[in-house]
Design brief:
- The chain has about 290 residues and is mainly alpha-helical.
- It has 2 domains: about 40 residues, no CATH class; about 230 residues.
- It has a 3-stranded antiparallel sheet.
């Protein structure tokens, strides 16, 4: 069968050398998340957005160790997200606030949000430093600190998630103030918490579509798909928690404190498992 070329310009994260061409592209909506490339000599090369980012990055030291690779940014992303997740899961765990007190409980959430932001920023840096050439070429490329690539689904996801963590920073910081009125709590704590949760839901949804290359997918044996599912579930749990945390002016209490703690703890656990799985994903065979 005769192969039909398609435009390679749709893959905004790739800068193909002379002679390379695209045979097929695939992805949800306007985004390209998977493609079949053709080498100038005729060989086919498969390209996958997440796989390329995780296994072909300018900031990976090449260390193949799964559990100890501080020279690889992907390792740091997993570790930082895991620590932040533990803080959120622990802070909402039954009996924790009674054990440590309200101030330490609040600090636990705030510290967790700082780890989330650090991890999300590292994830953004990882995204913009994905190699722009096909695997195996190892051409010299400059490391990048900032890019504007809204046509990339992974770039959008990393930016939206980073913004979400900043909202969590604001929310958990103001929550440390025990003298806030109900109106101030809803404005300075609840509001940013909702915005952060919405950002996490959007980012998780984008990653879910990136991994599955469509709105719906079922790849239970795929490690990247498992991570995307866990993050989507965690974001959903955070969203439920945020909605239930609205403080009613009449009672001065959240709508449903049980849902607040359960959603936060469940979300933290999901994020923690997903973060730990990032470590073997980095060293998993392509």
């Amino acid at each position: 069968m005769k192969e039909t070329k398609v435009s390679c310009s749709e893959i905004s994260s790739l800068n193909l050398p002379r002679g390379w061409s695209c045979i097929k592209t695939e992805g949800p909506g306007p985004f390209v998340t998977r493609a079949i490339l053709r080498h100038p000599k005729g060989a086919r090369v498969n390209w996958d957005s997440r796989d390329h980012r995780k296994h072909y990055n300018l900031l990976d030291s090449g260390n193949k160790s799964t559990w100890w690779a501080p020279g690889a940014i992907g390792w740091w992303i997993g570790i930082l997200f895991a620590i932040g997740s533990i803080c959120f899961a622990a802070g909402a765990a039954p009996g924790y606030v009674d054990w440590v007190g309200n101030q330490i409980d609040g600090m636990t959430f705030f510290i967790g949000s700082i780890f989330f932001t650090t991890a999300a920023f590292s994830q953004y840096i990882e995204t913009v430093n994905t190699r722009q050439t096909p695997k195996g070429l190892l051409l010299n490329e400059k490391k990048r600190f900032f890019t504007w690539e809204p046509r990339r689904i992974d770039w959008l996801a990393s930016v939206v998630q980073l913004i979400g963590t900043l909202f969590f920073n604001i929310s958990t910081f103001y929550a440390l103030n025990s003298t806030l009125t109900v109106q101030q709590i809803n404005h300075h704590v609840w509001g940013p918490d909702v915005y952060g949760s919405v950002c996490f839901l959007i980012a998780s949804g984008l990653v879910w579509m990136e991994v599955g290359h469509s709105l719906f997918s079922w790849k239970i044996g795929n490690l990247s798909w498992q991570i995307a599912l866990l993050n989507l579930l965690g974001s959903t749990a955070f969203g439920v928690s945020a909605v239930a945390a609205f403080v009613l002016p009449v009672t001065g209490q959240p709508i449903n404190l049980t849902l607040v703690n359960m959603g936060t703890s469940t979300g933290g656990i999901c994020f923690f498992i997903g973060a730990v799985l990032l470590l073997p994903e980095r060293t998993h065979p392509d």
